[in-house]
Amino acid sequence: MTLIKSISGIRGTIGGKPSDNLTPIDAVKFAAAYGSWLKERTEGDSVKVVVGRDARISGEMIQQLVMNTLIGLGIDVIDLDLSTTPTVEVAVPMEKANGGIILTASHNPKQWNALKLLNEKGEFLSGSDGAEILDMAEKATFEFADVDSLGNIKPATHYIDTHIEEVVMLPLVDAKKVSEANFTVAVDGVNSTGGIAIPRLLKRLGVNVIELYCEPTGHFPHNPEPLKEHLTDICQLVKEKNADLGIVVDPDVDRLAFISEDGEMFGEEYTLVACADYVLSKTPGNTVSNLSSSRALRDITQKHGGTYKASAVGEVNVVQLMKDTNAIIGGEGNGGIIFPELHYGRDSLVGVALFLTYLAEKKMKVSELRKTYPSYYMSKNKIELTPELDVDKILKDVEEKYDSEEVSTVDGVKIDFEDHWVHLRKSNTEPIIRIYTEAGSQQKADEVAQKMISEIKEIANLV
């Protein structure tokens, strides 16, 4: 069992001993630290926090603990109850709240849960803010409100519908065009809140919906990470029902994957590529993704005359670089779409609406659209090292070895060759180097990865 504390929140498995797992005591302590931090920043003014959760089994328990801790601090709570990560992000500025908490462990299995923390803009906290809250949680010097100053809870379960309307009203979303296309779409909501939000959005767009695992019970019917090996049921359903496409989201609805009409994966890396292709075709501009995302976004951006930049891995890093470069769309290659016209957060609802509008406009099958993009293939590996090895020195040696190539050290070491790239990142918690490669064929990507693993072992004297 595990408890992981990071600048973006606290994540762990339910049950067990405090400080070793995500227990009620840990949830209260961390919520108290976040609430106390917000109160310090607002200098005595009233504080308001939006709270929402995905459908995992422990969600209601954790939410009650978190909300009542905030009330005990004299903080008012806007209770979204079952919601999505992007919906909470949208609700924070709408409510003029001081922050937000999303109770979700994203794509982790059902025994996990987490508290993810937002600022007053509905964006994930900066590293320095997160570090302050972790420090406050460790010191646990909280001061709770007296009986006349307790906070209140205000239910606000309409926000998924509000979020949907905000998406539909975006200038680049054409509900009429989507409706006229008469799409039939299968949806795998992995028995979480995507099963509420995505079918509701599709029906609002005039789409015929086939629901699979859309009951928000929290009992995930398969591994909730939307990868090909976990999605055999939806792939089969798309073919059986002659659907135009399939849509898959993770439990908190910030990762989006499409299934083509032939039951094949569109490619999680290509979710962002397709949405960006559409947005850039209407409003030329710049894009951002992280260093471990596909080169295809760069290609598409340059085709439309824009500039592509790569950030360090992590949504907060992508968002900051998007702001710095005035990017009009960005995200992560794991199916996360960030469209600043609505908000700076990964949002599957925005991704679905943009993709369907583009598909309706192009009047082509999903598999045909996929063929219009450059084909890249990834290999994701890791190499485990002994604890006494200096991982930073190993990465420095690799950097120096390839100094004649285009090398980035923004996040680990990324080496851009003419027809492929390699990205090496060290783990913050264990002696591991993660090795991501991309090339024009799966064989080449795998070969490049194995070659790099051999070189690292040689540098570390492990051969």
From TrEMBL:
GO terms for biological process: carbohydrate metabolic process; peptidoglycan biosynthetic process; UDP-N-acetylglucosamine biosynthetic process. Residues 395-453 form the Alpha-D-phosphohexomutase C-terminal domain. Residues 8-142, 173-263, 270-374 form the Alpha-D-phosphohexomutase alpha/beta/alpha domain. Its cofactor is Mg(2+). Pfam families: PGM_PMM_I, PGM_PMM_II, PGM_PMM_III, PGM_PMM_IV. One of its GO terms (cellular component) is cytosol. The keyword Plastid does not apply. Keywords: Isomerase, Magnesium, Metal-binding, Phosphoprotein. PROSITE patterns: PGM_PMM. One of its GO terms (molecular function) is phosphoglucosamine mutase activity. InterPro entries: A-D-PHexomutase_a/b/a-I (IPR005844), A-D-PHexomutase_a/b/a-I/II/III (IPR016055), A-D-PHexomutase_a/b/a-II (IPR005845), A-D-PHexomutase_a/b/a-III (IPR005846), A-D-PHexomutase_C (IPR005843), A-D-PHexomutase_C_sf (IPR036900), A-D-PHexomutase_CS (IPR016066), Alpha-D-phosphohexomutase_SF (IPR005841). The keyword Metal-binding applies. PANTHER family: PHOSPHOGLUCOMUTASE (ALPHA-D-GLUCOSE-1,6-BISPHOSPHATE-DEPENDENT), PHOSPHOHEXOSE MUTASE. Belongs to the phosphohexose mutase family. This is Phosphomannomutase. The lineage of its organism: Bacteria, Pseudomonadati, Bacteroidota, Flavobacteriia, Flavobacteriales.
